[in-house]
């Protein structure tokens, strides 16, 4: 049982020596018995679970404690920081989970990025007033993974925050989630309210792009043209997509040559 739990928590193959450090009295015959039972496969150098999807069921209620012990052991052994963070996150460390999520997002593993933070929803919602940035990261990870209903809830809470920069960034995210959920009027309202407080040209360009797209979807091509031009006049990225929106709006407004 201890060997199975260690393999489940590690999430990768492990040698007999590594497993024995977490399972008192473990020897190769014990692993061979697990192999005969169809639970593990391997040899002295690398053992792994036959069905990795069963890891959470194997760990059960002791998962956090085991991940905490693994993180402590791996730290003593000088393991890489990303390995430590994965186990610390699984043990309930929010800051480690934020780092894991950011690393996943940088690799465009967006569902994995949200998966690292998803278990902390209630905690982050409860701390939003005093510590809004982790909930912003949670909401942005949810949106990146396509869960716009979950993202909307978190963004809506932060859109009322006392910090103007937090409100603006949350309103930007809320506008995108509302658009994806089909509420074009609500999305336009949130994005237009956010624009004056957005600090970076990239954020302003993203807002203008979404507003231009919403204008086109709503049939308001004059607004789509205005927002696309404003985004292009304030260089902050998204130039190609803004040009596409501008061309579409001009074409629909009867200016195909300019488009």
Question: Strands, helices and their partners?
Answer:
Blueprint: H1 2-10, H2 16-20, H3 28-36, E1 40-43, E2 46-49, H4 55-59, H5 63-76, H6 81-90, H7 94-106, H8 110-117, H9 121-126, H10 132-144, H11 148-158, H12 164-180, H13 184-194, H14 201-218, H15 221-233, H16 239-252
Antiparallel strand pairs: 1-2
What characteristics describe this protein?
two-stranded antiparallel ribbon, mainly alpha, 3% strand, single chain, 259 residues, 16 helices
DSSP strand content? under 5%
Q: What's the arrangement of strands in the largest beta sheet?
A: 1-2
Q: State the helix count.
A: 16
Order of helices and strands: HHHEEHHHHHHHHHHHHH
* Total DSSP E strands: 2
Mean pLDDT: 86
Helix content: 55-70%
Radius of gyration: 24 Å
Provide a descriptive summary of the structure in words.
With 259 residues, this protein is mainly α. It is 68% helix and 3% strand. The protein has 16 helices and 2 strands. It has helices at 2-10, 16-20, 28-36, 55-59, 63-76, 81-90, 94-106, 110-117, 121-126, 132-144, 148-158, 164-180, 184-194, 201-218, 221-233, 239-252, and strands spanning 40-43, 46-49. It has a two-stranded antiparallel ribbon. A hairpin with a 2-residue loop joins strand 1 (40-43) and strand 2 (46-49). Helix 6 packs across helix 7 and helix 7 runs parallel beside helix 10 (132-144). It is elongated.
């Amino acid at each position: 049982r201890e060997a199975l739990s260690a393999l489940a928590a590690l999430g990768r193959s492990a040698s007999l020596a590594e497993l024995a450090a977490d399972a008192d009295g473990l020897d190769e015959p014990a692993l061979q018995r697990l192999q005969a039972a169809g639970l593990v496969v391997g040899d002295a150098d690398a053992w792994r679970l036959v069905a990795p999807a069963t890891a959470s069921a194997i760990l059960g209620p002791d998962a956090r404690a085991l991940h905490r012990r693994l993180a402590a052991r791996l730290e003593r052994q000088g393991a890489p920081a990303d390995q430590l963070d994965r186990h610390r996150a699984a043990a309930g460390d929010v800051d480690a989970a934020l780092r894991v999520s950011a690393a996943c997002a940088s690799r465009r593993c967006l569902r994995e990025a949200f998966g690292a933070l998803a278990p902390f929803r209630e905690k982050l919602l409860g701390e939003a007033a005093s510590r809004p940035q982790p909930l912003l990261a949670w909401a942005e990870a949810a949106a990146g993974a396509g869960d716009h209903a979950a993202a909307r809830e978190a963004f809506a809470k932060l859109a009322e925050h006392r910090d103007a920069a937090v409100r603006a960034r949350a309103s930007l995210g809320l506008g995108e989630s509302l658009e994806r959920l089909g509420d074009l009027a609500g999305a336009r309202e949130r994005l237009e309210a956010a624009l004056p407080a957005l600090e970076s040209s990239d954020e302003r360009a993203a807002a203008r792009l979404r507003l231009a797209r919403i204008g086109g979807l709503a049939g308001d091509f004059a607004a789509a043209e205005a927002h696309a031009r404003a985004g292009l006049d304030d260089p902050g990225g998204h130039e190609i997509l803004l040009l596409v929106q501008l061309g579409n709006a001009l074409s629909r407004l009867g200016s195909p040559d300019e488009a």
